[in-house]
Amino acid sequence: MRLLAFINQSPKPAKTISAFLLIVAVGFLNLSTGWEIDLSLLYFAPIAFATWFLGLRIGVFACMVCTAAWFWVDLALVHTYTSEFVHYWNTFIRLSFFLLFVYLLNALKNSHEHERSLARTDGLTGAANSRYFCELLELEIARSKRYQHPFTLSYFDLDNFKTVNDRFGHATGDKVLIVITDYIKNNLRTMDVLGRLGGDEFALLFPETDQNSVRTIVTKLQNGLLQAMQQHRWPITFSIGVVTCDTMFPDAEDLIKSADELMYTVKNSSKNAVKYVYYRDR
Prior knowledge:
five-stranded mixed sheet, 5 strands, 64% helix, elongated
């Protein structure tokens, strides 16, 4: 698993060079062992590598290169056939098998990525589900602790969401959640993460963000969301708790609990407000 993660994180040029070197290595091994030993299966290794880590088009290109390498080895070994046509027919068959393998492997990869995405995202909104959000939060806590960089967690709840469900129906309630999620996604920074942790409860992770910076971000998001709710004439407001970690870094469960408690402090008092705190102050 660590090797796969390392390869995935490697730059594309490095992976391309690696695939090419694998092809060269298999070709020279095939040449050195002679025509009596069949090493055809080894050619699938660089093809699989190129397809899985570099995509379908590079995989198809790898098929062509491997077929050309195999063709060249056959010529170099002076392996005679009863007819010259046989040599080209065998080359065509090899290329066909390689291409079939590439398309099947690419379909498997797409299916794997789709299932992986479903396991990580909320089915209705497309936000990170609670499990995946906690995983990302734990990674950010570890990274921030190592480099002593601040980050912020925001936990917010929809005020009057039950009223919308009761008055307009659950289909409208689902639409509310989708509108909110889409607005936040379109106004987040690339590095920020949105998660849906409950029915109408969401969390936002802001890496590399101190308390001063997050005030501007959260205020802008809250104002934009309120305008979106007013445009649809939905009586929704937002109770928000925001925790910034600067010098102390708790685990993910404690941090979410702290932000949740802040949010409920707002919800049980004025609603439609934001409460900020440094975790070190708690």
